[in-house]
Amino acid sequence: MDNNYKSGFVALIGRPNVGKSTLMNQIIGQKIAITSNKPQTTRNRIQTVYTSDEGQIVFLDTPGIHKAKNKLGNFMMSAVGNTLNEVDLILWLVEPSTFIGGGERHIAEMLANIKTPVMLVINKIDTVPREEILKVIDAFKDLSKFEEIIPCSALKGINKDELIKTLFKYIPNGPQLYDEDTITDQPLRQIVAELVREKTLQLLSDEIPHGIAVTVENMKQRKNGEMWDIDVNIFCERDSHKGIIIGKQGAMLKKIGTFARRDIEELLMGKVNLSVWVKVKKDWRDSDILLKNFGYRENY
Q: Are 196 and 129 members of one domain?
């Protein structure tokens, strides 16, 4: 192994909906983390791996930083806190706005107690005029101690190569941590469950998706290798929500299943027979047992 080979860990942080999962998917070149325009899309700390001739970067996509309202929220925020002290570099993503609100100031306060180097990434630069970006840099530059400030567009891939090049400046020399073809530590079942949850986020009204958990009950490839049979449960907190998820004559559930199946087939590179069921588990977001059952554990 080359003595100049680098390997290390980078955490992506920021308020909900700033594009952390989109950026990670863009760098990896494959959809691993789900995305939507709703807050709290990412719940677990998702780990993906970028490998090049120069080295290997393990990205940790953390939940959007917000004030916790229940045990699920507490779990999500502890996932963020535990991550920041473990990594080699923190990427703080912000939107291209000169207004610095309470959410950004809260993150700056968190970072004041962290010794890890921080790089500011101004995302979504494709949505504002170029001259506006300089004003955003000026507004943020003194908010925290930044090693670098890099504008980019996670969605369009603008400045992606420059960002990766800059990341390697802060990654220490070290051995390859994962095989070259590894892109995530997420079990396939978990990615499948998240893809179904993504469709509920995209297709349902704002309130309901926050009360949804998805589990894969059965996932088997048929002997001929041409088809996967997958059974998925969507758990919600109220009977009224169950009716909305199923929809009139099952129309909404069918839509969720159809959209999810397309992404799952792309992930598994094969045909999928997907069955989706809806069940009610009242107040699961405040139940330690149910949170663990649904895969939200603090000890990764």
A: no
Residue 21 to residue 32: CA distance in whole angstroms: 8
Single out the residue of 241, 237, 227 nearest to residue 284, CA to CA. 237
Considering the domain boundaries, does residue 234 fall inside one? yes
Q: Are 259 and 203 in contact (CB under 8 A)?
A: yes
Report pTM: 0.62
Give 189-238 pLDDT, tens digit per residue.
888 888 898 888 888 876 666 678 888 889 899 888 789 999 999 988 88
Q: In the structure encoding, which two tokens stand for residue 199, read together?
A: 């469709």
Which two three-digit tokens encode residue 92? 């703080």
Q: How far apart are CA 233 and CA 151, in angstroms?
A: 40
Its domain, for residue 204, covers 188-293
CATH of the domain at 32: 3.40.50.300
d(CA 123, CA 152): 5
Sign for the pseudo-dihedral over CA of 155, 102, 14, 6: positive
pLDDT digits (tens, 9 = 90+) for 229-263: 999 999 888 888 899 899 999 999 999 999 999 98
Rounded Cα gap, residues 107 and 189, in angstroms: 32
